[in-house]
Write a sequence for this structure.
């Protein structure tokens, strides 16, 4: 558990800033990110990797959170970027990343998108043989190829991106052919890539895909004489969301993957490739809370509801994946200190559901939680830095929320709250 940026005094604090002050100043719903937590996450992972294999590169998988203040902060720490869309490439370039620091990994990529990527000179990670053929008519950029290693893992079926059900990458039986074709088409071949899934906290789950991939990389390299400049093993590093879940053992992860990496590059004579990683969730997930105001309370014979001003328009994960996010009463955080540190939730009240303002029964941010709150209190939804704001929508014609970054005792608006007028943007009548 890595929530050192959260603490409890009279109210919940992010670093040295009182959350209720933030909520009063910037209004709610409000995403609040700790800069310290963001830097810590990056540096903790970087250090663990440097200790075991120093020729490594961390590409932040920015689909988790593309606020440009977050992109800029991570670049300062030494991050590269993994982008999955032209929009993400655009935002990364606007945040100061060099084209050479960006790897694009898309799926179902159009020719128009390929043209943009070639024009911007970013590396392209190929997802299909058709994409390779289409790209060859547009240019000959640096490429890698995404392998489906035949195995995957993840916290939800939707988040498993390797194995026979997955639409991503090129299956092992066609991968040598794909590289041969890339050679024939005169591409500048730089790497091989996989990304097996998301939310993986068990180091063992990475082992067999890692071994498979390294063996396949060896086969490609030896059969057609390619020396890989980098081998990219994707992201997927999980974080604990529930109080009884354990963190990924970072030292264990790093030791395990680099030991396979090193022994396989030796076994297959792969030279001295860079080990590239693409964590998204791990870098940003626990850096951010969502502050939401209690609007209403009600009950029926079966449920107690606390009605708040954030719904699945603000945070989609609970409705979309059935995800669990911790909830703390930021105005009155008694007992919350232990919860922040990962203690079990205690029975402090009859359990309640935290319900949003949308006209949808599925609009619950949390179910059966021991939360006590009065109307007007602010609740903090924890660990929303990854796949939080980026999945928000204007459903029910609700303007998008604001984002704030905290550093020490200072807070800074990093995205304005939308207004009602914004709902008319681009509408033509
Ligand atoms: C989503 C994604 C990642 C990051 O996944 P996390 O689970 O957030 O670490 C990395 N690489 C690619 C290609 C992705 O699509």
């Amino acid at each position: 558990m890595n929530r050192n940026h959260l603490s409890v005094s009279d109210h919940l604090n992010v670093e040295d800033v009182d959350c209720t002050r933030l909520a009063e100043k910037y209004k709610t719903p409000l995403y609040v990110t700790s800069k310290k937590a963001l830097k810590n996450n990056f540096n903790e992972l970087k250090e663990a990797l440097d200790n075991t294999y120093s020729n490594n590169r961390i590409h932040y998988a920015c689909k988790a959170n593309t606020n440009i203040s977050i992109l800029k902060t991570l670049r300062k720490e030494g991050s590269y970027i993994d982008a999955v869309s032209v929009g993400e490439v655009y935002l990364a370039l606007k945040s100061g990343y060099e084209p050479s620091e960006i790897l694009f990994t898309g799926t179902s990529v159009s020719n128009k998108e390929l043209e943009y990527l070639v024009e911007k000179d970013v590396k392209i990670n190929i997802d299909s043989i058709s994409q390779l053929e289409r790209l060859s008519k547009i240019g000959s950029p640096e490429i890698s190829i995404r392998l489906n290693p035949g195995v995957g893992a993840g916290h939800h079926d939707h988040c498993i991106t390797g194995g026979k059900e997955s639409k991503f990458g090129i299956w092992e039986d066609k991968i040598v052919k794909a590289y041969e074709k890339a050679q024939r088409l005169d591409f500048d071949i730089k790497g091989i890539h996989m990304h097996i899934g998301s939310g993986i906290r068990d180091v063992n789950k990475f082992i067999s895909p890692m071994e498979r991939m390294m063996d396949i990389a060896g086969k490609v390299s030896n059969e057609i004489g390619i020396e890989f400049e980098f081998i990219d093993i994707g992201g997927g590093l999980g974080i604990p969301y529930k109080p009884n879940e354990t963190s990924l053992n970072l030292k264990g992860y790093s030791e395990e993957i680099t030991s396979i990496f090193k022994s396989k590059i030796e076994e297959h004579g792969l030279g001295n490739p860079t080990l590239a990683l693409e964590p998204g969730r791990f870098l940003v997930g626990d850096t951010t809370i969502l502050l939401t105001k209690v609007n209403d309370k009600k009950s029926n014979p079966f449920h107690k509801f606390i009605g708040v001003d954030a719904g699945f328009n603000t945070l989609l994960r609970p409705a979309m994946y059935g995800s669990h996010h911790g909830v703390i009463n930021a105005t009155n955080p008694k007992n919350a200190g232990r919860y922040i540190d990962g203690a079990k939730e205690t029975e402090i009240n009859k359990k309640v559901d935290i319900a949003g303002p949308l006209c949808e029964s599925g609009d619950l941010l949390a179910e059966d939680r021991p939360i006590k709150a009065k109307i007007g209190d602010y609740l903090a939804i924890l660990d929303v830095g990854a796949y939080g704001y980026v999945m928000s929508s204007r459903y029910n014609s609700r303007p998008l929320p604001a984002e704030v970054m905290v550093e020490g005792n200072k807070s800074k608006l990093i995205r304005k709250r939308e207004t009602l007028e914004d709902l008319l943007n681009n509408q033509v009548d």
